[in-house]
UniProtKB/TrEMBL annotation:
SUPFAM superfamilies tied to this protein: ALDH-like
Protein species of origin: Thermomonospora echinospora
Similarity comment: family membership: Belongs to the aldehyde dehydrogenase family.
InterPro entries referenced in this protein's UniProt entry, alphabetically: Ald_DH/histidinol_DH, Ald_DH_C, Ald_DH_CS_GLU, Ald_DH_N, Aldehyde_DH_dom
One GO molecular-function entry: oxidoreductase activity, acting on the aldehyde or oxo group of donors, NAD or NADP as acceptor
Keywords of this entry: Oxidoreductase
Domain (Aldehyde dehydrogenase) ranges: 17-478
Protein name: Acyl-CoA reductase
Coiled-coil positions: none
Chloroplast is among the record's keywords: no
Active site per database record: 254
PANTHER family in UniProt: ALDEHYDE DEHYDROGENASE, ALDEHYDE DEHYDROGENASE-RELATED
């Protein structure tokens, strides 16, 4: 790995790489080796202040919000080109900093980044940022204005992808941004900042200051920010929402999930269940939209448990640098302890570990947990109601279609979900009944980034991606038009 990519000494503020105000460094630890593989400086309050001031100046006085949408789109399109050329670097850094299996990097870490900038470049060119409205003898002009300075706070499981989900539409809208990458995986965000600078984003429009919770809270509270865009845990989202409420700061939240995969009684269990298991193992289960509650018809439950256990046991677990690996380590030791704690809770509550449940014997180093299948799970158990964020599936029996829908909707979350059916039309009817932000039918997911992503209930507030993602960074304004204009 290029040492420059793994050992950083500066922040990106005001269009330049600038020295930190403080001297603290944050070690980046490989989840697969438990060794330090990189480091970044830790932002202080003064560093955050400088970043917000740069973004504020760029928005209030700079050219970016005053460019035409087509001019901004040209920059976004160039950013897409630059980012395509740096996908291998982003993937390699992410494997080292958060343990993503290299086989899955194109899907989770790089595959949507450049296309997202291309998408918002195209959307900006054709979006109606202004429209005239007439009512009788009166007329008005409705304009969509950039919200201002956006604080972008992203998690460690897909740091560049999720930063792009927010940064691309914010830039298309004409906003400036301050990005706070996660302390567990801060390095890949630097590549994004470099790419945007190379693409010609004006000075101060994009700023990057890594740090932990205190840095994020200072950024959220900062009077110079107009909007907070956050992806992370529901607990952190509640805190951010309360802080934003103090200043009526605009906020969008993409939070946790406990999504259900409903397997209907006409589905091919032998084919469907292994597919669900494989999907839930993506990023070692560290995905907010993972389908981790598998709802199965009771009369086919034993068959499904057997199929799930066999599928989990066959998942390759190992070094994330190995292209054959599907499940790599969890991001941190605390995350492994969290997952192991939930498995213990499941046993105590009466659930049965049908596969996995421990640490892989062939991997003495690294924060690994075996792909785990929990059977005999009731939807009232904590493992069925709380987000585990690891390679753990809960298999829950149901009695009839209405019961399946009831169980699927009986959750504090509503982020994603799936329906598997022999009859796709029946699958669509059931999907319409699920109180969740996105639904896949027979493994077919909606065409992101062209459609919105986000959740009902405690899974978040607002939507990302699609035109809705752009509108979340815009403020509508109405202007009365006197006769003659």
């Amino acid at each position: 790995m290029d040492d420059r990519l793994m050992h950083r000494r500066e922040f990106f503020i005001g269009g330049a790489w600038t020295a930190p105000a403080g001297g603290d460094l944050l070690d980046v630890v490989s989840p697969s080796t438990e060794e330090v593989v990189g480091e970044v400086p830790v932002a202080t309050a003064a560093d955050v202040d400088r970043a917000v001031t740069a973004a504020r100046t760029a928005f209030d006085e700079g050219p970016w919000p005053r460019m035409t949408p087509a001019e901004r789109a040209d920059v976004l399109a160039r950013a897409a080109t630059v980012l395509r050329g740096r996908e291998a670097e982003i993937a390699a850094v992410t494997v080292d900093e958060m343990g993503c299996a290299i086989s899955q990097a194109p899907r989770s870490q790089t595959g949507m980044v450049a296309p997202l900038f291309d998408y918002y470049a195209g959307l900006a060119r054709g979006y109606a940022f202004e429209r005239e409205v007439a009512a009788g003898d009166r007329a008005g002009l409705v304009t969509e204005e950039p919200v201002g300075v956006a604080a972008v706070i992203v998690p460690w499981n897909a740091p560049v992808t999720l930063a792009a989900w927010k940064t691309a539409p914010a830039l298309a809208a004409g906003c400036s941004v301050v990005v706070k990458p996660p302390p567990e995986a801060p390095l890949s965000g630097y590549v994004l900042a470099e790419a945007l600078a190379e693409a010609g984003v004006p000075h101060g429009v994009v700023n990057l200051v890594p740090g932990g919770r205190q840095v994020g809270e200072h950024l959220v509270r900062h009077p110079g920010t107009d909007k907070v865009a956050f992806t992370g845990s529901t607990a952190a989202g509640k805190r951010i929402m309360s802080l934003c409420g103090e200043r009526i700061t605009r906020v969008s939240l993409e939070l946790g999930g406990k999504s259900a995969a409903v397997v209907l009684d006409d589905a091919d269990v032998a084919a469907v269940v292994p597919a669900i298991v494989g999907g839930a193992m993506h990023l070692s289960g560290q995905v907010c939209g993972a389908h981790t509650r598998v709802l199965l018809p009771r009369f086919r439950y034993a068959e499904a448990v057997e199929a799930a256990a066999a599928a989990a046991a066959a998942v390759p677990v190992g070094d994330p640098h190995d292209p054959a690996t599907v499940v790599g380590p969890l991001v941190a030791e605390r995350q492994r302890e969290r997952v192991e704690g939930y498995i213990a809770l499941a046993r105590d509550a009466g659930a049965r570990v049908a596969a996995g449940g421990g640490r892989p014997a062939h991997l003495p180093r690294g924060w690994y947990v075996e792909p785990t299948i929990l059977a005999d799970v009731d939807n009232s158990m904590r493992v069925a109601r709380e987000e585990i964020f690891g390679p753990v599936l809960c298999l829950i029996p149901y009695d009839g279609e209405d019961d399946a829908v009831r169980i699927a909707n009986d959750s504090p979350y509503g982020l994603a979900g799936g329906v598997w059916a022999g009859d796709p039309a029946r699958g669509l009817r059931v999907a319409r009944r699920l109180r969740t932000g996105s639904v896949a039918i027979n493994g077919v997911h909606p065409p992101f980034p062209h459609v919105p992503f986000g959740g009902f209930k405690e899974s978040g507030l607002g939507r990302e991606l699609g035109p809705e993602g752009l509108r979340s960074f815009l403020e509508p304004r109405s202007i009365g038009l006197p006769p003659g204009l």
